[in-house]
Amino acid sequence: MQKMLSLVRRAVDHYHMIDEGDRIAVGVSGGKDSLTLLTALAELRRFYPKKFEVIAITLEMGYDNMDFSHVDELCRRLKVEYIKIPTQIKQIVFDIRKEENPCSLCAKLRRGALHDAAIKAGCHKIALGHHFDDVVETYMLSLFYEGRISCFKPVTYLDRMDVTLLRPLLYVPEKNVKSFARRFNMPIVHNPCPADKHTKREEVKTLLKDLEKQYPNLRERVFGAIQRYPLDGWAPDKSRYK
């Protein structure tokens, strides 16, 4: 927990993520990343010098056999308000539209529903569970498939919605997330999406794993290049947390 909180606080401070009185919604899919983020922010809330609130929001996608009752129990233990929003995203993407490449439409629908739910809950900041490995993979995806040097930002303000997206796990490697989720027995909810594990992101993840056999610490070098370049929004303010 101490190591996780250290990495999360470093990201929060480097990129000025939290202000006094913030009410922050955490998008909770039931996966290891979002549950780890929720737990870390709930714990950080206890001692961070700027007082803030955390709530959890889950979009129920319309799949059968997705039981979030144990996530509900976790939220009660963490003293976090938990909101579940029923949606028909699964039916729209797979049954009505029958998308051959469903991820883009699904992500767009999920973003819209999450932003709306957060605003209705009085939150104008939303924390997402993207971690260190997601940063590197997104950068490589943009380079390989779009011919662009690009990545999502640590903090993104959406002026049309008056919502700010935060990524407090960006310094946390995926292996640390897995270890944390296992050690603290996170109530992970299996994702039954038929497109899961069959994406371009999985291809890039496999490629990076293979390249690191020959080039150790490749991910760290790519991540460092993103900050040193720096990409828009990626220059950290290291005066706030070393």
Could you describe the 3D structure shown?
This protein has helices spanning 2-14, 32-44, 69-78, 89-96, 102-120, 132-146, 174-183, 200-214, 218-228, and strands at residues 22-27, 52-60, 81-86, 125-127, 155-158, 163-166. The chain is an alpha/beta fold. The chain has a single domain, classed as HUPs (Rossmann fold). It has a six-stranded mixed beta sheet, with helices on both faces. The longest helix is centred in the middle third of the chain and has 19 residues, at 102-120. The radius of gyration is 18 Å and the shape is globular.
Which characteristics define this entry?
alpha/beta; globular; Rossmann fold; 242 residues; 9 helices
How do you describe this structure in short?
This protein is an alpha/beta fold and 242 residues long. It contains nine helices and six strands.
